[in-house]
Amino acid sequence: MERKDTVTGLRVVTFNVLPLAYGLVSRWAEQGGHTIVLAVTTPGPSTRRTPSYTGVVAMVPPAVDVLVTTRLRRVAAPLIRALQPDLIVSFTFPYRIPPEVRSLARHGAVNLHPTALPAYRGPNVMRPIYEGYPLLGATLHWTADEYDDGRILSQHTAPMPAIVTRESIFTAWGPLMAQAFAEGVTRAVAGEPGTAQDHAEATYAAQFSEAEHWLNWEEPGLVVQRKAAALNMFGEATATAQIGGVAHRVRSVEALTDAPLSAAPGAVLDRTDDTMVIATGDGAVRVSADVIA
User: Fold this and answer.
1) What does the pLDDT read at residue 3?
2) What is the pLDDT of residue 8?
3) Residues 84-103: pLDDT tens digits?
4) DSSP labels for 211-227?
5) 210: phi > 0 → left, psi -120 to 50 → alpha, else beta; which?
6) What does the alpha-carbon distance between residue 51 and residue 23 come to, in Å, rounded to a whole number?
C-alpha cells in the first residue's frame, strides 16, 4: 500500500526543554491536526541544569497538561500510560527516554536532533557551528537506548552560512528542522524502519570547555564572529575575551570584512559608548562587550 504524504489526528506527548523546540512541535501539531496531550519538561540533572524549561511551561496553553520532572520511569510513565498516546517525540531533552516509556506510544518514539547525524551526536548542537562544519542539518530518528544513534527516518541539510549570525543560522536551520520533523513523523507512523547510522562515522558534540569560551583575536575575524555566535546562540552571552588586559563578556561580534590589518591582534582600534573595534588576525571586528565584574 502506498504511504500517504501526511498523517492527521495523532495524540502526541512531547519532551522539550527549549521553548523553540516546543514551538516547532506545537506548530506542526496545529498545522497537521494533531493534539499534544502532554508536554514533559525538566530542570535537568544537577550537573547540567536547563533553566529554559520555565519558558516551555510558560508557552504551553492551558488546555495542555504539563509535567515537570526528572523521574521518567516513576512519574512520567504512569501518566503517559493513562493518556495512551499515538506518538512520543523529543527535541531538546537532556535525559534518555527509557524503553518502558517509549513503548507506551502506539507508534513508538522519535527524536529530532539538529545535526546531520551521525555527525555531532550529543548535547552541544552549537559545536558544529563553532568548529566551522560545512553543513547545517536536522535529523529525525527513532529513539534508541543511546543518545542520537537510532535509525534515521528523515534528514535535511544545507550549507553553513558564509557569515554566521544568529539570524543567518536560524533562517537556514528552522526550515530544515521543520521539514525533517514532518517528513520523519509520517514515515514513523507508516512503520518504516529507517536507515541505520554508520557508527564508524559518528562524532560527538561535547559541551564547550572553559577554554573554548575565550575568543582568540589572532584568528580571522569571521572565525571570531562564528565562534561568538555559536557561544551566544540561545540568547545568553557566554563568549568571553581579554580586551585591553581586562576580561569581558562578549555580547556580539561583527567581522569588518574590508578592514585592513593595521595593528596587532587584540589591539583596540576604536571605542564608542556601546562598541569597540578590535584587531584580529586578518583585519578587525566590531564588538559589544561588558567587563566581567
Assistant:
1) 42
2) 82
3) 999 999 999 999 999 999 99
4) GGGB--TTS-HHHHHHH
5) alpha
6) 17
The DSSP code sequence of the chain is: -PPPS-----EEEEE-SSHHHHHHHHHHHHHHT-EEEEEEE----TTS--TTHHHHHHHS-TTSEEEE-S-IIIIIHHHHHHH--SEEEESS-SS---HHHHTTSTT-EEEEESS-TTTTBSS-TTHHHHTT-SEEEEEEEE--SSTT-SPEEEEEEEEPPSS--HHHHHHHHHHHHHHHHHHHHHHHHTT---B---GGG--B-PPPPTGGGB--TTS-HHHHHHHHHHHTTTSS--EEEEETTEEEEEEEEEEETT----S-TT-EEEE-SS-EEEE-SSSEEEEEEEE--
Cell 573595534 sits on residue: 277
Q: What pLDDT digit, counting tens, does each position of 144-177 carry?
A: 999 999 999 999 999 999 999 999 999 999 999 9
Nearest to 145 by CA among 187, 100, 208, 202: 100
pLDDT the model gives residue 6: 62
